[in-house]
Amino acid sequence: MSKVKIGVLALQGAVAEHIRSLELAGADSMAVKRVEQLDELDGLVIPGGESTTIGKLMRKYGFIERIREFHAAGRPLFGTCAGLIVLAKRIEGQEESHLGLMDISVARNAFGRQRESFETDLPIKGIDEPVRAVFIRAPLIREAGANVEVLATYNEEMVTAREGRLLVSSFHPELTDDYRLHEYFAGMVREARSGEAKG
User: Which of 37, 89, 109, 143 sits between 20 and 30 A of 97, alpha carbons compared?
Assistant: First the structure.
């Protein structure tokens, strides 16, 4: 079976680390800096960084509508940390969302100053052993719609979830050698592509 090609939105954040993890997970990967590059891809990762900055840059370079179209065409998206905020329909304390695709409400920097950064072993539904999770000024999912499947919680707070072809995590899976969440996403992308081939 031919490899899937998964891009990493390269406006801000740990792009090289995501590319490395995706390639370890068996996908081809590339940094995406121009909207026309989306045409080459089977899936897209929106990495961490600062969500307001990423949102502004996405608007500036025409990514908002093109990524919505990419998703409408059945291609999966994976948002990590700030990428989770970018995908959410509702952001606490903000009137408008960015992509507004996933039926979740999120809180930015929700762990507070004293816990801005920490690591933990996190059990994730669909992955056999706990995943090493690095939280850096992480957002939280406050509310999830009926079609959202919560894949992981930390202290009873939702930190990883899936809705159809959308996947999000509060933490940075690219900052460790554990690439299994990227492998999970690559599986979603393969599934979507084989569904397209059948259709």
Answer: 37
